[in-house]
User: Fold this.
Amino acid sequence: MEYVSPEGLRLDGRRPMEMRQLRAEIGAVSGADGSAIFEMGNTKVIAAVYGPREVQHRSQLNNDKALIRCEYTMANFSTGDRTRKPKGDRRSTEISLVIRQTMEACILTHLMPRSQIDIFVQVLQADGGTRSACINAATLALADAGIPMRDLVTSCSSGYLNSTPLLDLNYVEDSAGGPDVTVGILPKLDKVTLLQMDAKLPMDIFENVMQLATEGCKAVANYIREVLIQNTKQLENRHADQLSLSLFRKLLLYGFCSWRIIKFLEKDVEEET
Amino acid sequence: MEAKPSSTSSSKFVDQLVVPGDVILDLSSMANQTIKLGGGLRQDGDSISVMKAGTLRFTKPNKYWVESSHKRYVPSAGDNVLGVVVDTKPENFLVDIKGPALAFLPVLAFEGGTRRNIPKFEVGTLLYVRVVNANTGMNPELSCMDASGKAAEYGVLKEGYMFESSTGLSRMLLSSPPYPVLEALGKKLSFEIAVGINGRFWVNASQSSTVILVGNAIQKSESLSMVQQKIYIEKLLKSIQ
Assistant:
């Protein structure tokens, strides 16, 4: 099958080195401590983070670092043909593990000993690259929850079809059977936290493909950064105009007086009315 | 803010929005200087990097921290918080303060507390308490006394209702000058409010309708800008007259 046309366009009209459209939203789950929705084209993922909180099972308690748990599920309606039993299969278990390890690499677990952080990711729409989308969503959710992190982890996949390196494979390209390289990086520190490939590739081509995926990760990182800043700005707007900075500084210096009972006498109200 | 060549100020990032991983200071270029780091920052070799999304703040001479608003609370000594009793042990009450671990409130940490008169709290009791100790690796310790051993305002909050907020909103409610919404409500209504820096506030009034009104108004005001708040409160107060 022809995955890249002679004009250099892919099946969905993208160029080989083009990503799908990204969209992200923070605070999608009101009950969670941090949450986010992340979309890469038609792939849509929701992530919710709970914690740091008390460890649920005493036996898992770790005295020098936080326990991170991750659960990846795919919604029944996420794929073309409705699946019956999506939970607990080997694929989900593997991806849960991959996401957990990637997030563990960026969370400063030693700052929150004897606690537990739960990350739940669910695929709402699957169109290839769910692994990457889940990692990106989880990063945003963790940042929203205010969990201390070394850096933002971002992930992107790339493949090699018709002798062309392709960025951000969709479902059709993914199921073509070619190599699928998923890369996760810490963009500021320039470190790789995840690298997966389930096929064979010559070394020199692999380097190109991985380089492409890394560039993709950096593009995602820029976008995620932008989203986070926008989100903080929304929260900050009020701070900026309500709190004169100098006063805030003074307060901090003299120590917060964080308790205040304001009891307005009913007399005052009567006088006014 | 203008950077003086010799000052420690990293004026490039101060009062800017930062995200995890951002490097705000390079220590290799500033020998023989002391800086103090607050929440959300860490030292990584020769650089100071950010670990929480928020705004970078700086006070002279050398203090840096990241200000952010979250649903979770990181306990720190001296904070006044609202806690909910979760369990009772012979030595301690276990109190939920929205932190990473349950906090311990020793049964003797009350004014004039002795073995004879241990207070009885049911599960779910709301307390206004002070964080005495917050070290990593152990549960935070609370107290119902101020530093001089007086009950001060600490203790059980009877009646009323507790509302959840973000830590940012709590900080604003406690800010000086007073939070405009709170001030406007206070001019028209009579109510009592207790704010915990851990993202909880408690409201009490003679009529439960006032409690609901105040609680909702404060919660809703969080997502509004200052002008919107003004309009919202004016409308709200008009509607109840």
